[in-house]
Amino acid sequence: xxxxxxxxxxxxxxxxxIEAADAKPKKKKxxxxxxxxxxxxxxxxxxxxxxxxxxxxxxxxxxxxKPGNTIDQANIPDVYPSVDxxxxxxxNGSQDTCVFHYNEASTVLDAARRYIPGYFTEELNSEELxxxxxxRQAAEMTFSGYAGxxxxxxxIDVVLQVDxxxxxxxxVSVLFSNDEPIRCCVIPDxxxxxxxxxxxxxxxxxxxxxxxxxxxxxxxxxxxSVQISYMxxxxxEGQSRIDFxxxxxxxxxxxxxxxxxxxIKADAIPEFFDVKLTLSEAQADADFGAYMLGTVPSGYxxxxxxxxxxxxxxxxxxxxxxxxADLSWNISAYNENDSARLTSVVQTENYDLSLYPIPRAxxxxxxxxxxxxxxxxxxxxxxxxxxxxxxxxxxxxxxxDGWRMAFSVKYGDIIVEVRTKGVEPEWVYQQLMNLLEK
Length: 438
Prior knowledge:
Shape: elongated
Radius of gyration: 26 Å
């Protein structure tokens, strides 16, 4: 979402890169969602599955390209066979039968990823979709998805979104990669293996309540890791399980070397760089240097200054600390996503923290949470009074009691984001006003 084929708990992540690695995929080719990652778990939020049409045994017709880079099944018959899994053609070198053993999970882990330099995504075209869709499909299945690559254009992962009439209110995704599959469920004992069309899979089930059901099947097919993730809400367990088994039967029914990840190539590699700078080098940056701090507060030392650009992010940032105190200064280009956080200084309900007692999750109205968390002021309107309305103190044992604040300021098409703990509001305001002169 995305690469991110390992979990944070494997200690492969560099904390300095979390923001860059966790960026939302940019719609380079209309990517269908925030799946720019090699995730270990897929828990998408949708609702219940309904009537289940049967499987079409044997080979499917040639894929029929559709608008929006989706593929659906051609020549749909009027009558479908039973959804029961029955012997058919030989797939994966074995008779295609499925024996399901469910491992009861006590919980599921959040998806996480390590930092992969230059990770970017591209939407799958119809030819690439055809290389990874299964040989057996349920009625009227449609597919869309994206591929994730590293900064050199090497394929990291492929995420496929699946839809069909019987999945009207269910969420389904399938992850493909050349790496080893990673279990994302916590179970009390060693997992029991299932045999799905001649392939070994581990299947997990988990429910957060009586109406929400999660199923996950993880294994390998023809050397490729495959993870089938299903979630339904507002459904009964029996129906959800039937739907999942239909999907599992389909996505383990490959032959002729498929899923064929070698058919998926990057069209273009976005510009990427990640460079550590000195303060003087940052001030000389052609894009953002004019908005970098001219000086730092007394007693603060430089932790890092970074110039970063990838498919989704383009910024210059600096971090300075003084014991438990810190100052973060981030500069980036203004974009449409920022418009929801723009506020005038007269709209105090958008930024005055004295109106919202801690914990603010309880006091800030839901519709204002994004803007109250990090409002954007026009530099020509910003006042010292507004800065003080963003500043507050917290009496916490073992921490400093200095001012804390977080907000952004717009200078034309540039945004400067300030986050501090322990810096005086007057000092912050003066630095921001100095930028107007530039």
